[in-house]
Amino acid sequence: MAEHGRANRKISPKSNFNSWYPSIIEIADLVDKRYPIKGMDVWKPYGLTTMSLIDDITRNEMKRTGHNEYKFPLLVPEDLLEKENRLVSLLKKAREEGVSPSELRIEEEEAGFKKEVYWVTHGGENKLEIPMFLRPTSETPMYTMFSLWIRSHADLPLKTFQIVNTFRYETKQTRSFIRVREIHFFEAHTAHKDEESATNQIHEDAEMVDRILHQLCLPSIISRRPVWDTFPGAWYTMAADVVMPNGRTLQVATYHHYRDQWSKEFNISYEDSDGNSKYCHQTTFGMSERLMGAVVGMHGDDNGLIIPPAIAPFQIVLMPIASHIDETVDDKILELATELSNHGFRIKVDDRDVRPGVKHYDWEIKGVPLRLELGPRDIKDDKCIISLRTGGKREVLIENLVDSITQLLDEVSDELRIRSSNMIKEKIKQLPMINEEDGNLNLSEEIKPGFVYELAFEGSDSDAEKLEKLTGLTLLGISKNNFKNKRNCSITGKLTNNRAFIGRMY
Q: What is the pLDDT of residue 113?
């Protein structure tokens, strides 16, 4: 870590979020964006460790809920993609026309991920008979195997997950963690005996999202996506969005209920206890490195990152002071480091021969939750000074250090939750009244940039389209938390408890 002072941080003020975000990622050394393929960043140790700790939280949730980890191949043959495209096209068309998919026969068209995949056409110098592509997600390879594995009701539920890299040719402007072409991706896929069992899985997914985001100190908006923003292969889609400091929403988790639509296409069936053959009902649950982007964007400040203790590579940095004067300082630091490490804390001893101020600046940029100073006088008094990344210092007794650090880490987490919750509250406004005059819709007040708007909504797709055209924003969907008292829909005037959100999305 280079020696530098506050003047050389090169961090834009957070009030200028679009400049602050990439600058903080660079200065904190999370990834390197200079790899010669746009949107494919090189993960550096500090960023990778942080992401790995997020993965550990996810794995613990998977273990708790009975999911098993798999690793499916990266390459997928083209014929499987065509199979997915046919299904997605059919379901999309059926939804648009309001009919059952069984009533339609449509020609194959480009749908699904076909326009976004990276193709592999040669093996060495030999042209492949069937082109292959790098997985954009894993429905097709997974479900091909599900059809081989599932035979009886005793095989259900099948609950799988993997944490892998996926590849999508993202044509929009790339942004580290938020919009990339090589994605660090988590996906869970499950198969169940009936719709009720699959619906219960969706509820379990929602609980897991809440638990994961709680550890990341990230409040979110949970909503059922509108029909046009539902994955075409899904019956419905639920999503968790984090509101970033610039007022844009960042989708960090989705979970889909497929019913038996995919199992019919991929022949995923089982024999029930009566000997009848039935199609499985399925769900998927996905997250990505966008969780990392949300943590960076939500919690950081003008001085650098602030990493929640649950995912901090180093939860506390120990800094010896004046050890060149008193050699017992280094001995005591190592003793404390061993004790803290044995109690499960992730620690770092910074024994560099630089000024204490430089150490503080460096670890402040890195977002380390706690920084501990120990010098000769502290040893004599059996005390040490601990600085919190969220602000303030504490003088604690060395003999109570483990308990004190546990308490202070909890204090940092609680403070981050309070700050992020308050930030979201500040970013959500009530949508101005909509008036109709001479057949035209008008807003009583101008839409201000940098905000998400809340409204009552009980309308059709065309009503939503009118709303989006009027505001220039995108409807996120219907929140899982309804209004307690009925309100008039902003477009139709119908009384409803439905709470909806509309804003600008990443």
A: 64
173-184 pLDDT, tens digit each: 899 999 999 999
Residue 101: is its pLDDT beyond 80? no
How far apart CA 373 and CA 367 sit, in angstroms, is 17
Q: Which residue carries 């050394």 as its tokens?
A: 29
* Alpha carbons 414 and 337: distance in angstroms, whole number: 25
pLDDT at 450 over 70: yes
Encoded tokens for 179: 């919009």
Report residue 55 as tokens: 């993965």
- DSSP class per residue in 270-283: EE-TTS-EEE-EEE
Angle (CA) 319 375 313, round 5°: 15
Nearest C-alpha neighbor of 78 from the set 30, 125, 31, 128:
128
CA-to-CA distance for 109 and 17, rounded, in angstroms? Answer: 40
Place of tokens 């200079």: 34
Name the pairing type of β-strands 316-320 and 370-374.
parallel
Say if residue 99's pLDDT is above 90: no
**CA 138 to each of CA 134, 190, 225, 266: distance values in angstroms, whole numbers, following the listed order:** 10, 12, 21, 13
Q: What is the pTM of this model?
A: 0.92
Residue 136 DSSP label:
S
Nearest to 95 by CA among 117, 83, 111: 111
Neighbours of 360 (CB within 10 A): 18
Q: Answer for the pair 349, 390: CB distance below 8 angstroms, yes or no.
A: no
| Pick from 321, 333, 340, 359: nearest CA to 409 | 340
CATH topology of domain 32-298: BirA Bifunctional Protein; domain 2 (3.30.930)
Report which DSSP code applies to 135: -
What's the CATH fold of domain 314-419? Answer: Rossmann fold (3.40.50)
Amino acid letter at 75?
L
| Nearest one of 160, 113, 109, 170 to 136, comparing CA atoms | 113
CATH 3.40.50.800 in the chain, residue ranges: 314-419
Residues of the chain with CATH 3.30.110.30: 428-503
Cis omega (within 30 of 0) on the bond before 157? yes
Superfamily grouping for domain 428-503:
C-terminal domain of ProRS (3.30.110.30)
Per-residue pLDDT reduced to its tens digit, 342-374: 999 999 999 998 999 999 999 999 999 999 999
* Measured distance CA(89)–CA(78) in Å, rounded: 16
Q: Which residues contact 392 (CB under 8 A, 6 or more apart)?
A: none
pLDDT(461) > 60: yes
Judged against a pLDDT cut of 60, whether residue 103 lies above it is answered with no
Q: Give the tens place of pLDDT for each residue, 117-149.
A: 899 999 999 999 999 999 999 999 999 999 999
